[in-house]
Amino acid sequence: MIGNSNKIILILIWLTLTACTATGGGNKPVQHVAPDPKAAEINMRLGLNYMQRGDYKTALEKLERSLQQDPNLPSTHNTIALLFQLLRETEKAEEHFLQAVKRAPDYSEAQNNYGVFLCQQQRYEDAEQRFLTAIKNPLYSSRAQALENAGVCVSRIPDNEKAEKYFRQALQINPNLSKSLIQMANISYQQNDYLQARAYIQRYQSISQWTSQALLLAIKTENQLQDQDAVASYALLLRARFPDSDETQQVKKGQY
Exposed, middle or buried, 112 (CB in 10 Å: 0-12/13-18/19+)? Predict the structure, then answer.
């Protein structure tokens, strides 16, 4: 999944990946004899823990120490890239994302995280390719999330046809992805398929907390279906939960 939430980004980190050493050139991992790979792994984990606590200074110290102990550890490059992303040091973040995927091309978590980073930089086509690379790994447990991220990203191009394809694929793997459900509701609404939009909204409602955007979409959908009782119910909920939102002001003015 895309967004600015640190928590969502951090969940995607693969903690169990160890150092990758191999000979060869091109896109193959770079050969390196690590002076202390176990210590590098420990410092990577410590850096991640400090980052999750919001102690970015100590996190950076631990992660830099980890790279000194093993410059070839993909998980450290991935983690420090996430940290630089949080610190808005985009050039350093991209440098380390590239190092992570260069050393371990099948490291799907890094590919997915790099895709999220690229999408935030509005490099949508590049981001899409990273998400597609992530899902090629049959052992990747978060393929549905990567597909959802791809859908969100291409929808910003906008390319609704591709977005719909990715959201459908994501929901085939995990039917309870709230972002994919509400995005499919929005796409259905745009296609004037209001009954289908209602169905997706009801599925979304059963598994997720309302957002002001989702409630507005529900109001617009029920208005098109001429169910004014449902419109009134959703509008009441919107005003109660999000009184200061733009969506509430829009509904008050009857702009739906």
Answer: buried
- Per-residue pLDDT for 237 more than 60? yes
Contact status, residue 248 vs residue 215, Cβ threshold 8 Å = no
Does this model's pTM top 0.85? My answer is: no
All structural domains of the chain, each given as residue ranges with its CATH number in brackets, are 184-256 (1.25.40)
